[in-house]
Amino acid sequence: MSRSTRTAGALAACSIAATIALTGCGGDGTGATGGAATSAGAAAPVKVGLITKTETNPFFVKMKEGAEAAAKAEGAELMTAAGKFDGDNASQITAIENMVAAGVKGILITASDSKAIVPAIQKARAAGVMVIALDSPVEPQNATDALFATDNLKAGQLIGEYAKSLMAGEPAKIATLDLAPGIAVGRLRHDGFLKGFGIAEGDPSIVCSQDTGGDQAKGQTAMENCLQKAPDVNLVYTINEPAALGAYTALKAKGREKNVVIVSVDGGCTGTKAVQSGQIAATSQQYPLKMADQGVKAVVAFGKGGAKASGYTDTGVTLISDKPAAGVESKDTAFGLQNCWG
């Protein structure tokens, strides 16, 4: 779906787009392109692949940081790739093929298209490569060996419950700023929000729905479109914090920012600061660094003769707000800033 960057030293220089030749990142930080140099008789480092939707979204930047740190700690060789944009399935397919050819033991992937990527994943698994989905499942979920992710339905439900409590019985005029068709994380968060708010798809309180691709500029345009269609919007659900900040910009331009509630998902440092400043009322914080850290360790364990990871590992979600709502458990932004995407 949907949704503060710090580099990790020399290892970060090893990351490239999926459409370019992949580069290995040795656990010693040398960035060797082949197998890392080893002493006589020493086992070669386990090769781990990480494929994210993009390289620019801060969420995936943090995920890559987690993978780089874990690979260095485990003495593994990390290869990274990304799509040119959110939804770039073709580049992710190319990255999978290149990583399999390079001899990775496992691939960690945040799928741009949860259905269209499945045949490429199946080929990788048939070649003996363990594939772990990060952040959101593919469809069907068992097309990967395992899933390490936020419970995105719960993330949406938390902000839905919060918004319902905050509205305190006032009739809602809801705009949903969604991700894009065919992406499981977007649908799960959207459905969770509706569940938490206590309404079904098609409810008349939903006065506008627009796709944003999780992009701030597109979020602003989407909100502008919604304000033209329904000027009395008073509640905005957003797939992630870039979309939320775009919505806030559009609302502020119309002088509506003070009387519209915006809720979101991600809990990045920038987004948490937006909650602290009052631009966003609440956000569901997730932990991409933890997803990548656990994923790398699982691949290394498999590469050293361990069992394949399997099933779903919930990496946690916390509602962040400085305006607690009755009956909804949350943490304040001080907690959020201490833990943003950690």
TrEMBL record:
Location(s), subcellular: Cell envelope
PROSITE patterns found in the cross-reference section: PROKAR_LIPOPROTEIN
One protein family per Pfam: Peripla_BP_4
Main location: other
Domain Periplasmic binding protein: 48-304
Keyword Signal: yes
Coiled-coil regions listed: none
Keywords of the record: Signal
Signal peptide (from-to): 1-23
Source species, domain of life: Bacteria
Family, similarity comment: Belongs to the bacterial solute-binding protein 2 family.
Name under which the protein is recorded: Substrate-binding domain-containing protein
Species this protein is from: Sphaerisporangium corydalis
